[in-house]
Amino acid sequence: MKPAHVTFRQLIARGELVRLAGAHSALGAVLAEQSGFDAIWSSSFEVSAARCLPDASVLTMTEYLEAASRMQKALSIPVVADCDTGYGNNLNVAHMVHEYEDAGITAACIEDKVYPKMNSFAEVQHSLLDTEAFARKLAVAKGAQRTDDFYLIARTEALISGLGVDEALERCNAYADAGADAVLVHSKARTEEQIVDFLDRWDGRCPVVVVPTTYPSWSAADAAKRGVSAVVYANQGLRATVKSLRETYQEIYRAGTSLAIEDEIASVSEIFALQNLDEWQALEN
Ligand code: SPV
Ligand code: MG
Known about the structure:
The chain is an alpha/beta fold. The chain has twelve helices and eight strands. The chain is globular, with a radius of gyration of 20 Å. α2 (26-34) packs across α4, α5 (90-102) runs parallel beside α6 and α6 (131-144) runs parallel beside α7 (164-177). Strands 1-2-3-4-5-6-7-8 form an eight-stranded parallel beta barrel, surrounded by six helices.
């Protein structure tokens, strides 16, 4: 395994905005690293979509861990594992922390939805655990970690559930008190207004992470100015892949030749470079 040169904790400690790209495969994660991203979000939405399955606690912890660790092995930057609800109750979350840490993952995020969860953008009523119950889950997760490096992000779905900024603040304060290293406030609003309201009233007791999927005009620079510590571009890579593959396959099938798209797609030698083929071939010499 390529060791992560920095841990997520070290990145946050630098005090500059940390930018994460969502990914589900080593290939996508490496492309994000090469594009300059500081860390990779092992997205539950992407990992499940890559298997044409819903992001609804259908896959098991082992399957999500395998995806995250495959990415981490190919990277020099840290993976932040999106671990949904922690895959069950407090026992499951303790096991999850042991397994992820053992696999060399230095950061994980768990959210306050009830298991089994549904993707935040799906039109369903998202049920949340009681604040105290999730705070206890976080305390169990922190108690389970064996290295000082491991970084736990507590995600609240209060805004996703329509509960408002007061509830999100109350929950994040409780989660920080329970030992979370950072909080993630998710929103499906079309503007950043709710998140800015949250940030204006947040006392800064721990870093704040945001996911601007539905409010894409909010720039990283603005988010940093408002006090955000990390921003997650959670699924743009997956959506780009779908559009690009669809257009490419349709054009080859329509034309009966791949000539028209040859200049639009990566060359075979670019793929060799991503495979580090030179290094592998050198082993034979
Ligand atoms: C993910 O990428 O899996 C996330 C973000 O958790 S979201 O899909 O917006 O819930
Ligand atoms: Mg997710």
